[in-house]
Amino acid sequence: MIEGGARASTLASRREYRRESTPLWLVPERDVPTVLIADADEDVLLMLGFALTDDFDLMWARDGEQALRLALIERPDVVVLDVHMPKLDGYRVAGQIRRNLATRDTPVILLDAHPERIDVLRGLAAGANDYVAKPFDPETLLARIRNALESTEIVC
To answer: What is the pTM of this model?
Structure first.
């Protein structure tokens, strides 16, 4: 089971942690951008972990509170948030990332399984840079993450 904050490079050797435990995050091991992925669906976390681990250091969270805590403390280069998470939804996390001086320029990409036009507009109004419908092609999300990094002049 994946717990909040673990990096993809620890998948093979991770220890099991109780869900209620404090999220684990590690110092980046490589000189590559860091992406925080937050989704309550472990399958999405695993799929994205495998798709993105070659290009980025990854952190993940299983709920909005973990995601916000990691975003504010670790200040990743990009944040990818599911809209429908427990505790805090992706809209609220995106909005709080935007309102914090230390993270306000961090690109935020929202993921949504059933996006309607109003949902996309709400996400963009909350401060998201991009809005991606699930299911999505991992290569397309990778391109969107790279575009977000280029817009902040972080080259990968």
So the answer is: 0.80
